[in-house]
Design a protein that fits this description.
Length: 237
């Protein structure tokens, strides 16, 4: 029996792009393993665009260390709007090798969790005259900035009404935008109370108090500790 080939493309700049791809893969394996093959790839590295891969990951580290640089980059992307042609110039090697990778893989569907991967997937569909659907998950729960606003995607999945609104502002047809909860692996959703109690005991946590696990990403850089402190010191209600 022929199995449909789903190619999930992301970039390992932090874990925010990889995590939803793995969560979707988990569901595909559990429910459709007899009909679907799903590969999750760090797209720049897997396609052989190693120089671009290194540059992207270094720039992410710099953006985290110096947030102002990320804000400036975000502003420039927003100013460019839907004119994404500059990507071909800045990431020429990645675009070419990414298209070649997709051509070799022969996907029946492409799922992207990074806007640059989405752009390359769309370009591959045009250049190779593919018929497979291209679906993207916008991993920014409360945003939908210009890079995500690719009108040639078949569907854009978002986590909130605000993200949907932002994409519409960028010219995306509302019919292409679908609101879905953020993809999470089952291990984050199903808590074994016995194991939870054992873990709390091993960490010396009070058994009669609720425990909140806070995950913020950004390689530990940011204000998450301030938020936790404010929460811990807030007046009980």
């Amino acid at each position: 029996m022929y199995k449909k080939r789903v190619l999930s493309v992301m970039l390992e700049v932090g874990f925010g792009h990889k995590s939803p791809a793995l969560a979707v893969q988990e569901q595909l394996v559990q429910k459709y393993s007899d009909r679907v093959i799903n590969d999750v790839v760090d797209f720049a590295h897997a396609s052989g665009a190693h120089k671009t891969d290194e540059q992207l990951k270094k720039s992410w580290d710099i953006a985290l260390a110096f947030p102002i640089s990320a804000r400036i980059g975000y502003l420039l992307v927003e100013l460019a709007g839907n004119n994404l042609a500059y990507i071909d110039a800045f990431f020429k090697d990645f675009v070419e090798k990414g298209i070649a990778y997709i051509d070799k893989y022969k996907p029946d569907c492409i799922f992207a969790t990074h806007p640059l991967c989405l752009y390359i997937a769309v370009q591959a569909k045009k250049e190779l005259q593919l018929t497979c659907p291209i679906i993207a998950y916008v991993v920014d729960p409360f945003d939908g900035y210009a890079w995500w606003a690719n009108e040639d995607a078949d569907a854009l999945l978002v986590a909130s009404e605000y993200s949907k609104k932002r994409l519409i502002e960028h010219g995306i047809n509302e019919s292409k935008i679908i609101i879905k909860g953020f993809p999470l692996k089952q291990s984050f959703q199903k808590i074994d109370q016995e194991k939870a109690d054992a873990l709390k005991a091993s960490l010396g946590l009070a058994m009669n108090y609720p425990t909140i696990l806070t995950v913020a990403g950004a390689q530990g850089i940011g204000k998450v500790f301030q938020y936790i402190e404010l929460l811990a010191n807030s007046e009980k209600k």
